[in-house]
Specification:
Rossmann fold, 8-stranded mixed beta sheet, Dihydrodipicolinate Reductase, domain 2, globular, 12 helices, 3 domains, 481 residues, 22 strands
Length: 481
């Protein structure tokens, strides 16, 4: 048998093993609200090839490829346990099991590692929480996709309604079409039908009412059977407490803004300061995509090295608030053609750091350039540290943070030498450390942080909503603190 034959036989064997994982992972998700992860990447509803690629990607961050032969026994062990709602990282299970020298079986080790989600310790599945989207633009549609994807057994977040202004004939058909197909993020994973008579979009069995209103005061959500809901305002029209309070109508309990909040509105970056939210807080902001990209790695660097001061330069994809061709705009430069120019503009991300990291005393400045790409941006974080270090030490630290720390859902790590912006479309992390571009000299470190400013940010929004709704399930094995 030739080397080529050996490689192909090995591939077919791994395909067969990955295929056997799919029904086990699906059953755990549907019946028990258990999400199986591999190094923070969900394996729910993934194809055979996607599962194999996710295992191979572990080589980028952990240094060696994970084999499905290593992880399948842990998936099987999970199906035999009395699990409650949780997220379980089989990549971490495999890594910690390999390092354990007690001689336990996979079954015994798994039971011990996820004990907090079993038996008397497990969280009881609730009735779920209603969610309303106010606005249905770029972020709104991606958040809708994520909510539908995460509906699972129906006991988590439930997208009940979308509020938009009337757009004329076949409005709901056109909006459903924008949800179904996206030029950047591809096809919706599932089926979408439209019930025009009842103004409803049905996506993967989820009936979503489309409510037409020009103002929050026009809507009584209880008339649609909506109660105790979290409303996600993705219009950005109101950003202070007074304006956002207009949404606190019958049926709405909390309001989440997908833009930086003003005044005393808390700006929340999940993974960094989400646990500071008071249970009775009704209005909060998820800050900006760039704030979410820079604050987690900034915290990781502050915790390990201390930060004296820093500057962030963002090279940001163009957005809908710019013009396709030169035309009037209230901002001087944003009126110039977005697909034809690099456009210097402002960013509020640096000043927003203080809200998310109030203990950070370092002065952080920032600026931004919009460039002619439709999605994925990069933040260049230039830091003066409180002690000298080396490039190797910083790389090891950030790799470990991405794998085992409480920030592992926010920070990703890549070593690919030929990585470019389009490689990160669809990333679910708030930011991705580019190991090859990192520069360190003495007490100066320059981090290059990629981020999908649409999808990665939308994932952060969902994490915040899960937290405030009480359906943010614990992750096992527990990350290192």
């Amino acid at each position: 048998m030739t080397v080529n034959d050996d490689s192909f036989t090995n591939w077919k064997t791994r395909e067969e093993i990955a295929e056997s994982m799919i029904p086990l992972i699906g059953k755990l998700h549907r019946e028990r609200d258990v999400t199986v992860l591999l190094h923070s990447r969900s394996l729910v509803n993934k194809s055979v090839v996607s599962i194999l690629k996710t295992h191979r990607f572990a080589r980028q961050i952990a240094g060696e490829e994970l084999s499905v032969t290593e992880t399948l026994p842990f998936v099987r062990a999970l199906t035999e346990l009395d699990l409650g709602p949780s997220q379980i990282d089989i990549g971490m299970l495999a890594a910690t099991y390999k390092a354990d020298d007690r001689g336990l079986t996979v079954e015994a080790f798994t039971a011990e590692a996820v004990a907090g989600a079993t038996g008397a310790n497990k969280i009881e599945r609730g009735e779920g929480r209603d969610v309303v989207l106010y606005g249905f633009g770029r972020i709104g549609r991606l958040v809708a996709r994520l909510l539908i994807e995460k509906a699972g057994s129906g006991n988590g977040l439930r997208l009940r309604a979308i509020v938009v202004r009337g757009g004329g004939e076949q409005d709901i058909v056109k909006r459903a079409s924008l949800l179904r197909r996206d030029s950047i993020h591809g096809q919706f994973q599932g089926t979408i039908t439209v019930d025009e008579a009842n103004s409803t979009i049905i996506a993967n069995g989820n009936a979503i009412k489309v409510i037409y209103a020009n103002d929050p005061s026009e809507v009584d959500y209880t008339a649609y059977g909506i109660k105790n809901a979290i409303l996600i305002d993705n219009t950005g029209k109101w950003r202070d407490r007074e304006g956002l309070s207009q949404h606190l109508r019958p049926g709405i309990d909390k309001v989440v803004l997908t833009a930086p909040g003003k005044g005393d509105v808390p700006n929340i970056v999940h993974g960094v300061n989400h646990d500071t939210l008071k249970p009775d807080e009704q209005i909060l902001s998820c800050a900006s995509c760039t704030t979410n990209a820079i604050v987690p790695p900034l915290k990781a660097m502050e915790d390990e090295y201390g930060v004296e001061r820093g500057h962030v330069e963002t090279v940001h994809s163009f957005t809908n608030d710019q013009n396709l061709l030169d035309n009037y705009h209230k901002s001087e430069r944003r009126g110039r053609s977005a697909p034809l120019n690099m456009v210097i503009t402002e960013t509020g991300a640096a000043s927003a750091v203080a809200k998310a990291l109030p203990d950070l005393k370092a002065r952080i400045t920032g600026s931004s350039i919009r460039v002619p790409v439709p999605d994925v941006s990069i933040a260049i974080l230039n830091l003066q540290l409180k002690r000298e270090t080396t490039r190797e030490e910083v790389l090891d630290h950030l790799r470990e943070v991405s794998l085992t720390s409480p920030l592992r859902r926010q920070i990703d790590f890549i070593t690919a030498p030929d990585a470019v912006s389009s490689d990160f479309i669809g990333s679910r992390h708030a930011s991705i450390v580019d190991a090859g571009a990192l520069k360190v000299e003495g007490d100066n470190a320059i981090l290059y942080l990629w981020y999908d400013n649409e999808f990665g940010y939308s994932c952060q929004v969902i994490r915040v909503v899960q937290h405030v709704s009480g359906v943010e399930y614990p992750t096992y094995p527990a990350p290192a603190v």
